[in-house]
Amino acid sequence: MRCLALFTATLVIGGCGGSADPKVTDTASATYNGTPAGDADTDTDADTDTDTDTDTDTDADTDTDTDTDTDTDTDTDTDTDTDTDTDTDTDTDTDTDTDTDTDTDTDTDTDTDTDTEPPPPVDPCAGRPVGDAVGDCAQDFALLDRDGVTHNLYDYAGEVILIDLSAMFCPACQAVAPEFERLHEDYAASGLRAITVLYEDADHSPVVDAADLDAWIAAFSVDHLVLADQAYLMWERYGVVRPTFVLIDRDMEIVMIRNGGGAITGLEAALPGLL
């Protein structure tokens, strides 16, 4: 730039970089500036004005404005509002209401009906005529033993039954009692059921009680069943002769009726064919 400014004056000298006389340079200088020479105010104001205003404007205004505004606003908003709301309201409501109600209602109702009420007895004479004569199906009875236990004739259905109807005051009845016990001993194991029925006591009274039965059992060493007929039930069925014997087979049919002490022999002879 300086080279240009001085161009006019220097032209004569030969160039911008020549070794001209300083004075000429001064004069030209003076003419250019329009000021008296000497005010050396060289004003080197060469106006270099470097004004380096390089205006690099380093205002680099890099404006890095690092306003990176990364705005990381990580607002990750993870909102971990995990709201897992596990609401573990597991409501397991285990309400285990297991209600085991073990009401196992086993109600086994074992009502085995131990009410051991025995089934009604089977009628061995069903469909057949019932009576008191030979060939009839024998009528049932219900008589007491010395312990007050009731015995029914039909309790012994299926056995051969021999009944001795006697009175305690009767000499013939007393005489045959030992023989009747012997039949019991000899044939009981084969299925004979011997039963003595007393219908009058020693005073001719029909009121035979437990003491009377005990007295008869003791007097004749009786081991078979002895019952009391307190209403002449059996006496009226089979006659008034003392003693009277009634033989009944396994089907409850009357096969023989004998009276008197001498009857034992005939009865015994019939037993083998029935047992």
Task: Write a structural description.
Helix content is about 20%, strand content about 15%. It has helices at about 1-5, 5-10, 20-35, 170-185, 210-220, 235-240, 265-270; strands at about 130, 135-140, 140-145, 150, 160-165, 190-200, 225-230, 245-250, 255-260. It is built from seven helices and nine strands, in the order H-H-H-E-E-E-E-E-H-E-H-E-H-E-E-H. The N and C termini lie far apart (about 170 Å). It is α/β, with parallel strands linked by helices and about 280 residues long. Strand 6, helix 5 (about 210-220) and strand 7 form a beta-alpha-beta unit. The strands form three sheets. It has a five-stranded mixed sheet. It has a two-stranded parallel ribbon with strand order 1-2.
Using the CA coordinates, give the radius of gyration.
Answer: 76 Å
Give the % helix.
10-25%
Query: What amount of the residues lies in strands?
Result: 5-15%
Number of DSSP helical runs? 7
Strand order of the largest sheet: 7-6-5-8-9
What is the 3D form?
globular
| Helix and strand run | HHHEEEEEHEHEHEEH
* Derived structural class: alpha/beta
> How many DSSP E strands?
9
Tell me the quaternary state.
single chain
Please outline the major beta sheet: 5 strands, mixed
Gap from first CA to last CA:
172 Å
> What is the typical, i.e. mean, pLDDT?
73
Catalogue the unreliable spans.
Answer: 1-92
